[in-house]
Amino acid sequence: MRFLLVEDNPELSCSVADRLRLDGHAVDSAASLSEARDCLAAAGYDLILLDISLPDGDGRDFLKSERRAGRDTPIIVMTARAAVSDRVDVLDLGADDYVTKPFDFAELEARCRAVLRRRGSALQTVRAFAGLTFNPLTATLTIGPETRELRNRELRLFEILLSAPDRIFSKAHLCDRLFSYAEAVTDNAIEVYVGRLRRKLEGSGARIETVRGIGYRLVAE
To answer: If we measure between CA atoms, which residue out of 162, 164, 117 comes closest to residue 141?
Structure first.
């Protein structure tokens, strides 16, 4: 999944981003609200981690504007304010959760997982499609008696394609969802992951079809 981290402390931002990338997520970092808005204008995100005190404004105003605009991307607020009233305030403004600084990375990861589960994504549960069973929580495909493990980006790619079978996803869209701005990526990288995933799908009725000049789509034979 792709996360946006809005945090102006360089050391903390780097540590959090590195930890999330170890879990297989793509992470873009913004040190200000203006940078965060630029990122949101250019890409879609599965989760936003939002600091409150930022150089060019209050993260709560950003949170409020996102919700007033009808955007429902999950947001976890990171705050040094431990008072109950402060926590209630950000939840009432539309935050999905919060962590109090300093926090343990394991707690942050757990809260990210919990928020994404609560959002009720269909891809968080076991799903059957065209002769295979997909379990995103164990990162496995089961085809007949055989279970095949998916690596991080193979898992993310299959989640995207399975979210809308028969829909064509462009290479640019897939790059946007699988990689952060900090990663140097070419179209060939997408071709590599599609090729790997195709091999994992062999023996099932699911096939990744290339739509020449446009992109890829998942179809059932």
So the answer is: 162
